[in-house]
Amino acid sequence: MKDDAKNALPDAGATPAPVMTPREIVSELDRYIVGQRDAKRAVAIALRNRWRRQLVPDDLREEIAPKNIIMIGPTGVGKTEISRRLAKLAQAPFIKVEASKFTEVGYVGRDVESIIRDLTDLAVNMVKEEEKQKVEIRAHEVAEERVLDLLLPATAGETESEAVDAPRLQGTRDKLKKMLRDGKMDDRFVEIEMTQTAMPMIEVLTPQGMEGMEFNLKEMFSNLMPKKTKKKTVKIPEALEILTQEEASKLVDMDKVIGEAVRRVEQSGIVFLDEIDKIAGRESGHGPDVSRQGVQRDLLPIVEGSTVNTKYGMVKTDHILFVASGAFHSAKPSDLIPEFQGRFPIRVELSSLSKDDFVRILTEPKNALIKQYEALLETEGVHLKFADDAIQEIAQIASDVNERTENIGARRLHTILERLLDEVSFSAPEIQGKEVAIDANYVRERLSPILKNEDLSRYIL
Description:
Blueprint: H1 2-7, H2 22-30, H3 37-55, H4 58-61, E1 69-72, H5 79-90, E2 94-98, H6 114-134, H7 136-151, H8 153-156, H9 166-181, E3 189-197, H10 211-224, E4 227-235, H11 236-251, H12 254-268, E5 270-274, H13 288-304, E6 307-310, E7 313-316, E8 321-326, H14 338-342, E9 346-349, H15 355-363, H16 369-378, E10 383-386, H17 388-404, H18 411-420, H19 422-427, E11 435-438, H20 440-452, H21 454-460
Parallel strand pairs: 1-8, 1-9, 2-5, 5-8, 10-11
Antiparallel strand pairs: 3-4, 6-7
Helix pairs in contact: 2-3, 3-5, 6-12, 7-11, 15-17, 17-18, 17-20
């Protein structure tokens, strides 16, 4: 019973654990994202306010709405990464959607409520995995016993005459268990049974906007369809893994998982609406602006706060945080309909990236690009060594190409590094154990022919 109490999901009304202070959140974001301090401060305050809201009196708590954010800035400057890292810090359900996708099918587009349904699906999977980890030890022990039953089938169903040999059989079982845990039986094969449900092709019956019906149909058919068992011969380590997952699923209380997942979506879910500028359009009686306004009006209820029907029950969107972003090259936030603007009171502008920013992006973050490429090639025994002047040269080229062509921000660095290291990456298996020194001359030799031809650089870099 004690283990069950310890593994129980948190009570919905329990006091939330303290989160990081806004300063600590900004500091953590700095480890992965260069610059953009205003945007980091805005999301840090928004995250802290969620924790503060949980501590205010009940009658006031429901009245405190999240302060949604619009991030304005060119592509590749960190808008999506800030939101993604924020969700990881908060351990909150997070989904990114492109607002422009809701205009692809005439004036109605994709059902906007599918955003909340998808977010709830993610939350259920997140909580389920957490709960499976909590029962993993118990599940693994049960899986071991099932494997031992396969290796010693006589002990699984002992007859009365065999009872006299029980101590000897138990001794054999204990020896096998020790060998199993020591890895001495990893090369042996066993045949396991896996339960499957034959599912009909239901997707063809569920047009866009009727995703909820799809679940109901699947659930109905799954109850009607017979369960099938499939036998599979695998090595013992794989059998243990499969059986552990199967036992863990049995031990997890899905009702509690769904309850906790819905609570997380409602209280801490984050929706990132990208390309919001693509649906900015007002007061036009015809043409594409009608579609754009229609999408804004469709999105408005879930941003304002409504109840969405999902396969896990009703989900309220009143306290979900919405972070919108867009380049706003040919539009501006004021082109959004007034009701939609009013639901995004915080607006932050992200600046374009300079050469110095590119140098920092290449070297400073925990997941810096230079570190990534060094680690990738190290797996083949190739040691990349970037000189400081090489990094300066790469940053300068990225800055120049962004000015001459489309400005895609830090994404330009990926393109340039792939081109720069193309030969090394291809030849890595043949040059194991060698050190490849990359300096400014190496960068110029590899990239100058492309840079000199502006038409070519537009296609390749």
